[in-house]
């Protein structure tokens, strides 16, 4: 999931500092305002669900950089939050939050096989993205990830091609869309025989 980020230990501190700076700069507010990046959650139920993930993570020892709080004085606004100091079996790591939260983990083993095991150790994984200067390493990792789609070295949200199926994998999503593969779910096969 795009909310779970594994970073090579040699660049982790620099990554976290830049990621935190970008997160702090995001404008939370009216979704119709051109300068807003993030609007409110769609309902009290979703707001409460996200805040429960945040509370659970903090109680289990995760650290929020910055945020993890209500934003403003009214509405279902939540500050964008990056969590560190997580463990693989925390709810916020195992489940899809669908809110302005991310989990950033350092690959302390400097072993991409360990990262692949962690990334695959969840019931969910609609999509994944791999960033590396080494395209062969990126391809190796992408092939081993258990994800519905894997993007390599570019911002995932910019690429949903009409010819490439996208969607359901493990417990994420409902069905597949796009591509010839997706068209098959709208029809049926009617075999016949003639003599």
TrEMBL record:
Aldehyde dehydrogenase domain mapped to chain residues: 1-186
GO terms, molecular function: aldehyde dehydrogenase [NAD(P)+] activity
Highest taxon in the source lineage: Eukaryota
InterPro entries: Ald_DH/histidinol_DH, Ald_DH_C, Ald_DH_N, Aldehyde_DH_dom
Matching Pfam families: Aldedh
Family per record: Belongs to the aldehyde dehydrogenase family.
Record protein name field: Aldehyde dehydrogenase domain-containing protein
């Amino acid at each position: 999931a795009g909310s779970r980020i594994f970073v090579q230990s040699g660049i982790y501190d620099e990554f976290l500092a830049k990621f935190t700076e970008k997160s702090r700069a995001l404008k939370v507010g009216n979704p119709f305002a051109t300068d807003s990046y993030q609007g409110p959650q769609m309902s009290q139920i979703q707001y409460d669900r996200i805040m429960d993930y945040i509370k659970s993570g903090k109680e289990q020892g995760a650290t929020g950089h910055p945020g993890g709080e209500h934003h403003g004085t009214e509405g279902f606004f939540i500050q964008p939050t990056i969590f560190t100091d997580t463990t693989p079996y925390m709810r916020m790591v195992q489940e899809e939050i669908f809110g302005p939260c991310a989990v950033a983990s350092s690959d302390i083993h400097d072993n991409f096989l360990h990262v692949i095991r962690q990334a695959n150790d969840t019931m969910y994984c609609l999509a994944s993205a791999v960033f590396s200067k080494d395209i062969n390493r990126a391809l190796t990792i992408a092939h081993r990830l258990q994800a519905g789609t894997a993007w390599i070295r570019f911002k995932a949200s910019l690429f949903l091609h009409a010819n490439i199926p996208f969607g359901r994998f493990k417990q994420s999503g409902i069905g597949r869309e796009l591509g010839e593969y997706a068209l098959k779910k709208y029809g049926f096969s009617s075999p016949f025989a003639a003599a």
